[in-house]
Structure formats: C-alpha cells, structure tokens
# Entry
Amino acid sequence: MTEPTPRRTAASAPVPTVDVHAHVLLPEVDALVTGLPGHAEARALDARRNGPAALAVSGPMVRDRIPRLTDPAVRLAAMDAQGVDVQLVSPSPSHYHYWADEDTAEKVYRTANEATAAHCSAAPDRLRGLGLVPLQHPGQSVRALDHALAQGLLGVEISSHAPARELSDPAYAPFWARAEETGALLFLHPFGCTLDERLDRWYLSNTVGQPAENAVALSHLIFSGVLDRHPGLKLIAAHGGGYLPTHIGRSDHAWATRSDAGTDCAHPPSSYLKRLYFDSLVHDPHVLRELIRVAGADRVLLGSDFPFDMGTADPVGALRGARLTEADLDAVRGRNAVVLLHLASA
# Structure
C-alpha cells in the first residue's frame, strides 16, 4: 500500500532568518536637535563617558557604515550577504535624546517613528521597524507608543533608564499597561552607563557598560514586580540580557534569603527569564548555550547589532558556533521571531 504524501504545513516550511537587533541612523533627528539647549551638554557627557580614545575610533567607524545605516538598498545587499531574510530595525540609540524638554521630545519621537517607518517601507517584506518613546517624560510614553504603532511599527526601543528614573518607576505603569494591551514589542537597548568616567578607557563604556546596564534594568523590572503586574509584556533584551542571565543564581539567593530583596516580586527571579526575550549577541558560544539553558530556546532570538563594530558580521555563523541542536538553532535563527513578529511566513 502506498503511503499518502504528507501535507506541507507552516511548521515544515522553510523558516526565514530574522535579525532582531539592527539599527538605522536618522539624519532627520540629528537635524532636529542640533544646536538646541541641552544638546551640547548631552554630547559632552557622552564624550566624558567614552573617553577620547573611543571617540577617535568610533567616529570613523560610524562614518564608514553610514550607507548601511541609511540606504535601504545597501542594507538589503548586506543582509543578503549575511544570509538574513528579515531585520527588525530600531533607531540608533544615539537618537534617544533623553535630555530634551517635552516639546522637543515629542518632535523627536514623531520624527524618529515616521523616518524609521519610511526606511522600512522600502522593503516591507524584509524590514520591520521599532520607534522611540521619551522615557524622560513618562506622561508622553503612551502617546509615543501609539504613534509608533500608527506608523505600522511593531513597537518601540527603550534604554535602561532615563535621567533620575529607573524602569521600576511607578510613573511608567500606564506605558507597560498599554504595551501589554496592544501586544507591542519593547526592545531594551542601553545607551550610556551611569558608571560614567570609571569606564572612559579601553571602550569599557560599551564592553562593560552595556551588559551592566542590561542587568540593572532587567533587575528593576523583575524585583519591582513590573513583570508580575504585566505578564503579557513582549520585551526583548539586547546583548543577551547582559550579565543577569549568567548570574541569575545570585538574584535567586537574595530573593530567598533577604526580606528586602523578596518583597515585591512573587517568584524567584530566574523564573522571569522565561517571560522575557533575549537576542543572541553575547560573543561567546558557551554564554549563548547558558542563556538558552536558563531562558529556554523559545526565548532567544538572532541578533547582530547591524552594522556596528560591536556586533557580528556573521550572526548565523556565530549561532552555529554554539553547536545547538537543530531544533534550537532553527528556533533562535528565525522560528521564534516569525511568531513574535507575526511574519506572514509563519
């Protein structure tokens, strides 16, 4: 008896490779803020945090990448070379401008949202976008998120903190509620580190500062109970969540041992890792395997930090270097993102 031919299903169809950590540079935003009160001071702070040696390297590095950051055709060619089918494109974190007053902040987020949407519209089947919200003005956050979604963007990118505000601040409660209600994606990507000039040499501002900021921000969301109150949040942490996933046992110990640590979140901190999403950009196959162990293969997404030098030019190769099972590799390479981003091929 001849066996019937199996019906081709979505689960058996080829899964696209999806990079959820890719940036766009928006000259429109730079033109908007240049010369405004507070802009020069913010640039001076950034310079102090990074140090002169880092600035001397970063300037030429960014200039060399401007075509990939601004021209959709150049971006798509680079994606083809990498074997990437879809990018989730977020503004360069240099566009946060959390120093801005309310009027300027509204202009920034509207300009950034509209410009990102326009960039992605050049190839809507391959480029999906995220906008910005002004975390320094919590009262604008819901309007900014709604504006991003109205442009066809999938959500917004946020930093690890705003001046004098942590992500645990109760003022953000309406923002978390609206993000949960709409199913918007939140991409947590730090910019700047509050350790400031302690990290102003050897590019420690990025190599140490970014993973430290990720760990602090995620800890605020966990220990404050934000994730208990908003279990449906769809939050992706850049850089594999920084130092937190590989040191989550210390957080669990504090939660179980100290009354002050365990007051505001209902469950051990490690359990919340399975409610979050993480990109794969950790630069070490052993760390990636550990991230998958503690968070689950269904919670890790391919990320490259395109096209900056602290990213990877071969994200799929880096993923394969972790020697995952085929099922886990397939999930991280694209299957998880297909579901999360509601891609048509799902």
